């Protein structure tokens, strides 16, 4: 993201290191953010849950259908929104939000934010064999 202000955020990147490239026998996930430097980031734990058919999920601006089962997650998120910047779930799946620039025109009305998409998707992913509960 190009900016003329020295205080404006200018990057949003994720990386992962896996053995044997890691100095320790573990997967390392890291993310930096293009969020404003004075924006509060909360670290939150969301427990696993089961949800009744027809349940709704309130996101930042709109409501969507809730899946029947979600996994426990720990997330880092800006305090003002429902979604997340990054996180890890109980199965060891890590995910991070990335800025995506488009030339598509904006539509009128409220919608899901990119960080809103990260949170429910992450809560349904399983590490084993790339399977999901979606």
Describe the structure.
The chain has 134 residues and is mainly beta. It has a domain at 41-123. The chain has one helix and ten strands, in the order E-E-E-E-E-E-E-E-E-E-H. It has one helix at 114-122; strands at 14-17, 28-31, 41-46, 49-50, 56-58, 63-65, 69-70, 73-78, 86-89, 94-96. Strands 3-8-9-10 form a four-stranded antiparallel sheet, covered by helices on one side. A hairpin with a 4-residue loop joins strand 5 (56-58) and strand 6. The longest helix has 9 residues, at 114-122. The radius of gyration is 16 Å and the shape is globular. The relative contact order is 0.19. This is Secernin-2. InterPro entries: Peptidase_C69 (IPR005322). Belongs to the peptidase C69 family. Secernin subfamily. GO terms for molecular function: cysteine-type exopeptidase activity; dipeptidase activity.
Largest beta sheet: what is the strand line-up? 3-8-9-10
- Count of DSSP helices? 1
Largest sheet: 4 strands, antiparallel
Structural class, by secondary structure, is mainly beta
Portion of residues in beta strands equals 25-35%
Low-confidence stretches: 128-134
> For the residues shown, what is the average pLDDT?
81
Q: Using DSSP, what is the number of strands?
A: 10
- Give helix % range: under 10%
Distance N to C terminus: 33 Å
What's the SSE pattern?
Answer: EEEEEEEEEEH
Question: Radius of gyration in whole Å, from Cα?
Answer: 16 Å
Outline: globular
């Amino acid at each position: 993201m190009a900016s003329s202000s020295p205080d404006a955020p200018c990057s949003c990147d994720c990386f992962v290191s896996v053995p044997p490239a890691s100095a320790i026998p573990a997967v390392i996930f890291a993310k930096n953010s293009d969020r404003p430097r004075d924006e509060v980031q909360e670290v939150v734990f969301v427990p696993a849950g089961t949800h009744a058919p027809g349940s709704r999920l309130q996101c930042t601006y709109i409501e969507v259908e809730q899946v029947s089962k979600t996994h426990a997650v720990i997330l880092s998120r800006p305090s003002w929104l429902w979604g997340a910047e990054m996180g890890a779930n109980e199965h060891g799946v890590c995910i991070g939000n990335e800025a995506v620039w488009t030339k598509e025109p904006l539509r009128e009305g409220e919608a899901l934010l990119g960080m809103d998409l990260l949170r429910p998707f992450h809560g349904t992913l399983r590490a084993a064999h790339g399977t999901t509960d979606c």
